[in-house]
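Review form for a predicted model. The reviewer records the input and the model, then writes brief findings.
Reviewer: anonymous (R2)
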Amino acid sequence: MKKVVIIIFTVLVLVGLTIYVDRATRLPNKAVAAVPEATTFVSKPAPVLKLKDLNGEDVALTDLKGKVVFVNFWATWCGPCQEEIPSLIDMQNKYASKGFTVLGIAMDDEGKSVVAPFVAKEKYDVNGQQLLINYPIVIGSDEAADRFGGIMGYPTSFLISRSGKQIMKFQGPPDLDLVEKAVESSD
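Model under review:
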């Protein structure tokens, strides 16, 4: 009985210490935005994925083959996601005619009931103009994130080449120069 009490006490102390260390080392929201983006270069086929857009229509990633696709996992409540939306709107404006699209995968637990009104009303300052999100938004799921190998937080984005290969992963804000170079390349 004495060993059980010692084990339980030790576990409780470790749990308490873990919680303390987690809180003591957490970065405030402003500091998180300053952390450099993590870019991973990969080369594997894009996952097979079909999700519903805000009109209830199916959007399949395979339907976008031939375009450079910037798949962006985001949420309406995510501050860093909000900060990158103007850049994504701008890129969609600049490169849609060159075979590029952003595909926003909204990961809000409440789904379409929260995402649709948000997308319909939230405007962003893009080069001095107040613009709505101008790229397709679909409602995501944990299964969709798992098909990309899982995600650690929002925003997380993946760049898919014209040939349908996953070529980059961005944890946090993307390196827009790398995305632009991919749009300009032949693959």
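Findings: The domain at 36-184 is CATH 3.40.30.10 (Glutaredoxin).
Further findings: The radius of gyration is 20 Å.
Recommendation: see findings above.
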